[in-house]
Amino acid sequence: MPTIFSKIIAREIPATIVYEDELVIAFKDIRPLTPVHILIVPKREIPTVNDVTPEDEAALGRLFTVAAKIAAENGIAERGYRLMVNCNKDARQEVFHLHMHILGGRELGPMLVQADMPE
Ligand code: 5GP
Q: Which of 4, 18, 25, 104 is 20 to 30 A removed from 64 (C-alpha atoms)?
């Protein structure tokens, strides 16, 4: 079964695509948590970070160069932003097609709220 992100890559479902090349695609998150919330996705369907192989290094490196480009284009490079990759249940990964979130456009607060931390 292709993931929802593979369907976006194949243009089978719509998305607001902001960048695409041979290795990655970037589109706006459908439920934005911040004024700028964009997902950058390797085109190869890697389920989680645990499934990454050395062959993925070019695409995974590309996530960062594209993140920097998107941050500049959206005017958040100077103020800053957060890059986030969730893996599996404890991180509440929802879509099992590896992706990087770019979150920015407002002050983001602490990385995790204190209440989420075990004592
Ligand atoms: P995760 O929790 O897996 O790191 O994040 C998945 C993200 O994908 C969520 O922020 C969610 O809003 C977003 N998302 C889920 N389905 C779709 C979709 O069909 N289109 C777009 N653009 N984003 C989606």
A: 4
Ligand 1 pocket mutation, candidates 3, 31, 48, criterion most atoms within 8 A of CB: 31
CATH of 4-106, one of 3.20.20.105, 2.60.40.10, 3.30.70.120, 3.30.428.10: 3.30.428.10
To the question of pTM greater than 0.85 for the whole model, the response is yes
Whether the CB-CB separation of 104 and 74 falls below 8 Å is answered with: yes
pLDDT tier for residue 38 given thresholds of 50, 70 and 90: very high
99 is catalytic: yes
Residue extents of the structural domains in the chain:
4-106
73, containing H or E segment: helix 57-73
**If you take atom 13 of ligand 1, which residue's CA is the nearest one?**
29
Confidence band (pLDDT; 50, 70, 90) for 112? confident
Identify which of 36, 41, 40 has the alpha carbon closest to the alpha carbon of residue 104: 36
Q: Which residues line ligand 1 (CB under 6 A)?
A: 4, 15, 27-31, 39, 86, 92-95
